[in-house]
User: Which sequence fits this backbone?
């Protein structure tokens, strides 16, 4: 078997990349292709190179940004992807119950189930976990400014507290061509899985292989309202909060009165006043425990 590793070399845990190499070469590997990148945005080129070189199994070592960049590059291909969660939040790995354990992650890569999963796509770029505009994206953008290296997961809590009670924006949302929301919103979220940044269960009924995008709009304004909303998400069903609307769709269009930062899979992007999203069913094959 020809195996490839795409690794964010600044991310580490356990015995690091040295242990990863040992665990992989303990298996029946005919050829090992090894690509290290200094930043997640350098990963897509290496992912495509590994695919072109005939890799039958591609291990991705890194955080959500590296995983997102790789699945975006490999979407629609015959690539089989195994995640080794070496980042801060590791949202996709968490949702798929892939542990932060090198030996077990490698075992799942070689012996686990090959599961075809959906990918969302927003403004032309794929995501596996979520995309959002407004409150959550601004929180993530702040956490990216060196805080994650210093505080880890606490960075999201810190920046979340800072942005709670921030501005709302006149927002229009269409789902599958139908007008669905028109009003002031603090955040629009699109989910492919249930658990999002900060370990919050935002979409209780989400499944990553059902062919649907979960769509949520938060209307909370004050810190008190955000506290009530987040408390409801932590202790009950999100859709029972008076400060959120949730549905699902295959195509979503979001129009904002003023441009705001958007994000996908925990990585901040530029500001935008219009977002177009859809779901690509069974677009990637991932190795999962079951």
Assistant:
């Amino acid at each position: 078997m020809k195996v490839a590793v795409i690794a964010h070399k600044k991310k580490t845990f356990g015995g690091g990349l040295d242990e990863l190499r040992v665990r992989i070469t303990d298996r029946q590997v005919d050829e090992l292709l090894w690509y290290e990148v200094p930043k997640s945005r350098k990963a897509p080129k290496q992912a495509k190179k590994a695919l072109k070189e005939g890799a039958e199994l591609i291990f991705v070592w890194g955080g959500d940004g590296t995983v997102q960049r790789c699945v975006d590059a490999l979407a629609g291909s015959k690539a089989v992807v195994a995640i080794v969660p070496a980042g801060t939040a590791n949202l996709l790995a968490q949702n798929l119950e892939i542990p932060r354990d090198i030996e077990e992650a490698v075992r799942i890569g070689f012996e686990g189930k090959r599961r075809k999963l959906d990918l969302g796509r927003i403004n032309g770029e794929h995501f596996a976990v979520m995309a959002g505009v407004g409150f959550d994206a601004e929180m993530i953008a702040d956490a990216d400014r060196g805080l994650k290296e210093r505080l880890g997961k606490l960075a999201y809590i810190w920046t979340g507290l800072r942005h709670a009670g921030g501005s709302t924006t006149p927002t229009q949302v269409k789902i599958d061509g139908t007008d669905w929301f028109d009003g002031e919103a603090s955040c629009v979220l699109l989910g492919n899985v249930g658990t999002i940044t900060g370990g919050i269960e935002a979409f209780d009924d989400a499944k990553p292989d059902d062919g649907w995008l979960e769509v949520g709009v938060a209307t909370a304004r004050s810190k008190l309202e955000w506290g009530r909303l987040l408390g409801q998400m932590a202790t009950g069903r999100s859709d029972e909060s008076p400060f959120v609307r949730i549905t699902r769709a295959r195509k979503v269009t979001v129009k904002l009165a003023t441009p705001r930062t958007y994000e996908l899979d925990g990585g901040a992007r530029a500001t935008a006043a219009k977002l177009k999203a859809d779901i690509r069913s069974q677009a990637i094959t991932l190795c999962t425990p079951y």
